[in-house]
Task: inverse folding
């Protein structure tokens, strides 16, 4: 038996919006700790890791681990029926064939419930190692979103290099090159959310596909800030913290120069 | 093939991986099955093989691999291991059986089609009768059944049985009503009224009219045959009528084509049942439809599906640009030719006397050999023997002239039939046949041509003089001469270069094309299309249209002589038989553009009638504006007038059913009557469902024919009699219902049979060494390394994989695991986005199966190397492996199965013996059905898997850049793709290849947690879990055992490879 009641139904919407471009189906794992989802895109380049902790729910009950395989596309359709202020309750049995979504309007004058079929999804749970990132950049999420969008207009791949001085985003495309450097400004008088912070133990530089980064920024509404964590030659993590709830994390494998081809060419 | 049913077991632990995930992986591609797959799979909707299917398939797959940035290493099969050979032998037996089945299916199919046709006719008849019970006009045309019957291609065949003569009258009247109710007087059909009908109906009506007309004419001819002058007048008259009629029909056909193609200029050039080939003459549509479209003369046109013969090979469809250009060139040439004909004609005809002589000569002898049988054949069909034979000696000249026209076609057909037959046989036997034989023919031809070079010389000089006399610059003349021989040589070269391919295609087309008949036309057409191409180029070089016009003419002459000489030689020395020279001939005419060809024919007609000039003039006239077919017709007419020979109608039979006669000519050396019969049926079949049946043996047609008649007759009999005397409508309605039902049945039958035919025909082909060579050539151009394994490709792939030379193996063959592959990609070319990935580690983890276990499974299930235990499927096999672990276990298993059935004992005892008994108890009933091979568990088979003979080289592979230029040329050659198409296809591939960056996957950073395989069978699941449990329980012990098991093969490997080398 699983039951969870979420006061800000809009949050669920935002979470789904942040993943629907990347995956079409996924297993929501209900555990006593909370609701989580881990899924890779079809080409296994990026990984989504969502955690909604039980504390964030108004009411949360989960007796045992229940995988809830859901079609994300359909789920989005269903959640669309909920108003952004609605209270959402998710319910299912231990071995669910269906998951029930209950939407209560804020004023309690309308209750709608939906039942959605579950599906069996091959569980491909990745063990993401706990990583200490050699470079962590925290910046306003809107800024990051804009940056990615601008970059994507010029090239396919962005090279992110983090040094003490700041973060340098650069890309090359048919029309030319673009460089954007974001400097850390911890001492400024901006609000915490608008600051850019860089913590670095070792400079890192790697290239990433803007296509994926751009779809990650769909999570911008979830959080005012975004955190980029990098380790040389390892996937980048793009994390959006959900206040009092958990996080949406994206892992993205880097692109590398194709030496073999380069030599031949 | 692999281990039977093993995939079913492995599937649960396969992963669906995005195709992109393969990028930058080095994959060993087991290409050995590809060819077989392509041959089986790449077929059109009728189940016939596509042209160069194997290369095309390779091309597509290579593109896909490269596009996904895979670095493939192709591995081909080498020699077949002895064990596999034995198993393959068994498989071949199966294939032979399939061949037999194929033939049977084809026969059945034919039968059904005939039945259907008969029923449809009968139905139509009943319907018309139902609506209009008085079918008066059939009586208006008193047609002696004897003569008209053979005109009707379908009926006589059905009726030819015993009661034929008696009920023919009824049949005929029935027929007439059955088709369309036509007015008595053909000419009274108002074209405007007719034109209001939909084109298809117009055509049908016209065809019906024509049919009736022909029979009517025959009758008239018969009557007039006593007075030669009357006869020829009559003939002229009929021809003129026929011509105009045919024009109308052509017009309608064009219209129909226009409707179909959406453009007015299209010309249907060939058609199969649900496919049309339309030639669009873009450059000069006012003129003749190109030099290639002339094979069908006027008289032939009456024979019906003239469109079949018109113009280019069906390949036109996918070969538009280049060929089209070439054709444009030749068309222009033809046009110019016509303009200049006038200037040259009279002189030519005077200088052509010896040619005429030559042709006389040839026709004389070839007459005896080849024409006579036709006579007989047709005589057998319709009882006009006396006339035909009387006529023969007297007017042999005339007939010979006519005959000449058929010559090329005849032999074209003959060739075609042969090709067709060969390719049929191919399916049954070896595919090398056609090219081999044809090369012979080619060589023969070439040899003759060489020897004739000299005799050509004088003629050329003569021509040159002529040309001078008329108007041309002298400077061009030597050029011309050079041109000609050049072009001949070039042509030869071209033929040489492409002959294998083309003939292969020819074979294909022979099947594809309609019946044996058009099949013949096609291979013949192959060549001219390249011939004119060459010539067109040369001519362009000289850039003189005038020259263009003359060159063909001169060539014409030379070739005419050539033909004759060749004929002489052919019959005198080389061939000895008509067939021998036939082979040569069939190819020869092909060397000329069609326009020239017709002219040669025309000239001959003229000469033979000793009135060259008279004929030449009308010929000129018509050549100026119209269809060459027309010219032909007119010329023929003219000839007819000049020489008042009743025998001029000798070609008549062929005019109705050229195909048939051609067929019969091929076949009827001995048994004339039968062959002719068969030929007609064959020809009809060719028209109706030829594409399905290809050039079926005549015997088949005959057999079916005979079988068919009884069936068709009862269906028709009632209608045949009833409509004569005021029919009872109810009866006929009831009849119709029955027939409708019957028709439905037959339709279903046909559908089913077609399916079966398709299915069986698939597996009747085998890849040849040439095919492999072609594919390897393609790989080289793409810069992809390939190796030919010493023996099994999948074994080599597995080795490369094991040694880390490649990251994975692409194969559909589950053997790869048994040979030690660690990751196998399957169905890589099936879906667009996903690939199934199987890892040995997953298999070991999820299924608790080691490589040794898999080999044991192979022993049980059967694989390439062993037939397996009969009756054991995957579920039983996994249970057996579970219950009887190890090789020793398998031995025990064998003992147990072969032991006397002591079920009673077991059932009395409680299942105490550590579970084994439970299995034994459950299976003791079935085990007597299991048939264990005597050498089970065969050490040899295991050895073969553990240490296959492979190339142990560990050199790393290098990949080159795809060579665009080469690829363009290659595609143009093999698929006749225009440059743009190839470019379009290859550009994304090259772009992907050149992309510098490479996207890494998360898989290489994060490890997967435990996955749970889902089994389809509960029993498998149970057995697997037991296996797992046992291995887990035994813990270290078991692991040790397994290690030994894994260790063992590698130790044996060294030994085994030595052994393998010794073999």
Result:
């Amino acid at each position: 038996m699983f039951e969870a009641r979420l006061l800000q139904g809009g949050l669920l919407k935002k979470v789904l919006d942040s993943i629907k471009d990347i995956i079409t189906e996924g297993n929501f794992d209900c555990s006593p700790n909370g609701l989580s989802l881990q899924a890779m895109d079809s080409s296994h380049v990026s990984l989504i890791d969502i955690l909604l902790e039980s504390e964030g729910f108004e009411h949360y009950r989960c007796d045992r681990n229940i995988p809830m395989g859901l079609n994300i596309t359909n789920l989005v359709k269903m959640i669309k029926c909920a108003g952004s202020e609605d209270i959402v309750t998710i319910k299912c049995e231990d071995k669910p064939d269906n998951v029930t979504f209950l939407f209560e309007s804020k004023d309690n004058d309308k209750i709608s419930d939906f039942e959605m079929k579950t599906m069996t999804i091959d569980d491909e749970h990745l063990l993401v190692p706990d990583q200490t990132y050699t470079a962590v950049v925290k910046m306003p999420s809107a800024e990051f979103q804009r940056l990615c969008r601008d970059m994507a207009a010029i090239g396919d791949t962005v090279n992110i290099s983090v040094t003490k001085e700041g973060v340098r985003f650069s890309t090359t495309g048919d029309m030319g090159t673009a460089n954007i450097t974001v400097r850390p400004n911890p001492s400024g008088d901006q609000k915490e959310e608008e600051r850019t912070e860089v913590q670095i133990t070792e400079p890192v530089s790697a290239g990433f596909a803007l296509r994926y980064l751009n779809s990650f920024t769909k999570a911008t509404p979830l959080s005012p800030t975004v955190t980029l964590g990098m380790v040389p030659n390892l996937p980048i993590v793009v994390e959006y913290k959900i206040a009092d709830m958990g996080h949406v994390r994206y892992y993205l494998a880097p692109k590398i120069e194709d030496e073999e081809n380069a030599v031949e060419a | 093939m692999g281990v039977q049913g093993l995939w079913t077991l492995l599937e649960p632990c396969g992963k669906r991986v995005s195709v992109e995930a393969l990028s930058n992986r080095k994959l060993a591609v087991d290409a050995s099955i590809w060819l077989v797959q392509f041959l089986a799979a790449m077929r059109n909707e009728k189940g016939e093989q596509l042209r160069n299917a194997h290369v095309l398939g390779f091309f597509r797959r290579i593109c896909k691999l490269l596009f996904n940035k895979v670095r493939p290493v192709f591995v081909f099969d080498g020699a077949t291991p002895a064990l596999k050979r034995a198993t393959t032998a068994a498989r071949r037996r199966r294939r032979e059986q399939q061949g037999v089945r194929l033939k049977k299916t084809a026969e059945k199919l034919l039968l059904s089609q005939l039945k259907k046709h008969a029923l449809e006719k009968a139905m139509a008849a009943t319907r018309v009768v139902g609506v209009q019970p008085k079918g008066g006009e059939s009586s208006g045309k008193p047609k002696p059944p004897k003569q008209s019957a053979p005109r009707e291609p379908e009926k006589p065949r059905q009726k030819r049985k015993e009661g034929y003569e008696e009920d023919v009258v009824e049949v005929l009247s029935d027929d007439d009503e059955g088709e369309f109710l036509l007015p008595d007087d053909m000419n009274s059909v108002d074209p405007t009224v007719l034109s209001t009908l939909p084109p298809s109906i117009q055509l049908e009506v016209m065809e019906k009219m024509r049919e009736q007309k022909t029979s009517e004419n025959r009758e008239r001819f018969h009557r007039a045959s006593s007075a030669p002058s009357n006869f020829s007048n009559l003939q002229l008259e009929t021809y003129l009528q026929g011509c105009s009629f045919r024009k109308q029909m052509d017009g309608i056909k064009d219209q129909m084509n226009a409707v179909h193609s959406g453009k007015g200029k299209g010309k249907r050039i060939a058609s199969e049942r649900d496919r049309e080939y339309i030639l669009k003459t873009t450059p000069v549509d006012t003129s003749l439809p190109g030099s290639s479209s002339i094979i069908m003369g006027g008289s032939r046109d009456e024979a019906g599906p003239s469109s079949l013969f018109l113009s280019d090979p069906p390949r036109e469809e996918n070969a538009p640009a280049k060929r089209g250009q070439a054709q444009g060139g030749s068309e222009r040439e033809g046009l110019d030719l016509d303009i200049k004909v006038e200037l040259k004609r009279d002189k030519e005809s005077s200088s052509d006397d010896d040619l005429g002589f030559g042709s006389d000569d040839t026709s004389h002898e070839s007459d005896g050999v080849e024409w006579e049988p036709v006579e007989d054949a047709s005589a057998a069909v319709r009882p006009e023997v006396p006339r035909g034979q009387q006529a023969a000696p007297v007017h042999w000249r005339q007939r010979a002239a006519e005959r000449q026209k058929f010559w090329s076609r005849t032999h074209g057909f003959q060739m075609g039939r042969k090709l067709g037959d060969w390719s049929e046989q191919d399916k049954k036997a070896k595919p090398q046949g056609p090219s081999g034989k044809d090369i012979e023919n080619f060589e023969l031809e070439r040899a003759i041509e060489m020897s004739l070079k000299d005799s050509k010389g004088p003629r050329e000089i003569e021509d040159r003089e002529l040309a001078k006399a008329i108007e041309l610059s002298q400077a061009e003349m030597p050029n011309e001469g050079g041109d000609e021989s050049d072009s001949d040589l070039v042509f030869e070269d071209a033929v040489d270069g492409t002959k294998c391919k083309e003939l292969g295609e020819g074979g294909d087309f022979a099947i594809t094309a309609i019946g044996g008949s058009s099949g013949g036309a096609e291979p013949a057409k192959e060549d001219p299309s390249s011939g004119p191409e060459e010539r067109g180029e040369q001519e362009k070089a000289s850039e003189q249209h005038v020259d263009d016009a003359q060159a063909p003419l001169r060539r014409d002459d030379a070739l005419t002589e050539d033909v004759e000489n060749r004929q002489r030689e052919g019959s005198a020395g080389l061939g000895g038989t008509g067939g021998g020279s036939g082979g040569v001939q069939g190819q020869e005419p092909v060397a000329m553009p069609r326009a020239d060809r017709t002219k040669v024919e025309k000239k001959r007609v003229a000469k033979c009638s000793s009135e060259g000039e008279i004929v030449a003039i009308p010929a000129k006239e018509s050549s100026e504006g119209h269809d060459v077919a027309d010219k032909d017709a007119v010329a023929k007419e003219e000839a007819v007038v000049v020489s008042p020979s009743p025998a001029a109608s000798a070609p008549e039979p062929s005019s109705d059913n050229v195909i048939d006669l051609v067929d019969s000519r091929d076949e009827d050396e001995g048994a004339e009557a039968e062959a002719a019969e068969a030929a007609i049926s064959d020809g009809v079949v060719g028209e109706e469902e030829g594409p399905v049946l290809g050039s079926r043996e005549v015997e088949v047609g005959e057999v079916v024919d005979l079988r068919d008649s009884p069936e068709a007759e009862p269906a028709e009999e009632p209608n045949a009699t009833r409509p004569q005397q005021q029919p009872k409508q109810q009866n006929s309605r009831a009849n119709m219902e029955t027939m409708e039902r019957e028709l439905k049945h037959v339709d279903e039958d046909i559908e089913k049979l077609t399916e079966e035919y398709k299915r069986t025909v698939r597996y009747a082909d085998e890849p040849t060494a040439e095919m492999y060579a072609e594919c390897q050539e393609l790989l080289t151009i793409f810069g992809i390394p390939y190796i030919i394994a010493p023996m099994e490709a999948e074994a080599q792939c597995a080795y490369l994989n094991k040694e880390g030379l490649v990251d994975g193996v692409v194969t559909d063959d589950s053997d790869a695991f048994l040979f030690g592959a660690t990751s196998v990609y399957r169905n890589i070319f099936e879906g667009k986005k996903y690939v199934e990935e199987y890892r040995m580690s997953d298999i070991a983890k999820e299924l608790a199966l080691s490589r040794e276990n898999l080999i044991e499974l192979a022993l049980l299930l059967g694989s390439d190397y062993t037939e397996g235990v009969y009756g054991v499927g995957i579920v039983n096999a996994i249970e057996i492996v579970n219950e009887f672990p190890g090789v020793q276990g398998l031995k025990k298993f064998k003992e147990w199965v072969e032991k006397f059935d002591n079920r009673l004992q077991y059932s009395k005892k409680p299942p105490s013996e550590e579970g084994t008994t439970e299995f034994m108890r459950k299976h003791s009933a079935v085990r007597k059905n299991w048939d264990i091979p005597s050498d089970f568990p065969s050490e040899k088979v295991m050895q073969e898997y553990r240490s296959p003979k492979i190339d142990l080289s560990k050199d790393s592979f290098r990949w080159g850049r795809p060579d665009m230029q080469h690829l363009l040329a290659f595609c143009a050659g093999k698929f006749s793709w225009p440059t743009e198409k190839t470019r379009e296809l290859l550009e994304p591939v090259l772009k992907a290849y050149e992309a510098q960056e490479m996207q890494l996957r998360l898989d290489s950073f994060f490890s997967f947690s435990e996955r749970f395989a889902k089994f389809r069978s509960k029993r498998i699941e149970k057995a697997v879990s037991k296996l797992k449990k046992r291995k887990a329980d035994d813990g270290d012990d078991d692991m040790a055992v397994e290690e030994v098991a894994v260790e063992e093969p590698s130790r044996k490997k060294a030994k085994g490879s030595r052994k393998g080398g010794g073999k």
User: Anything to note?
Assistant: Chain A has two domains: 2-117, 135-264. Residues 261-265 of chain A have pLDDT under 50 and may be disordered. The radius of gyration of chain A is 20 Å. Residues 135-264 of chain A form a domain with the Proliferating Cell Nuclear Antigen fold (CATH 3.70.10.10).
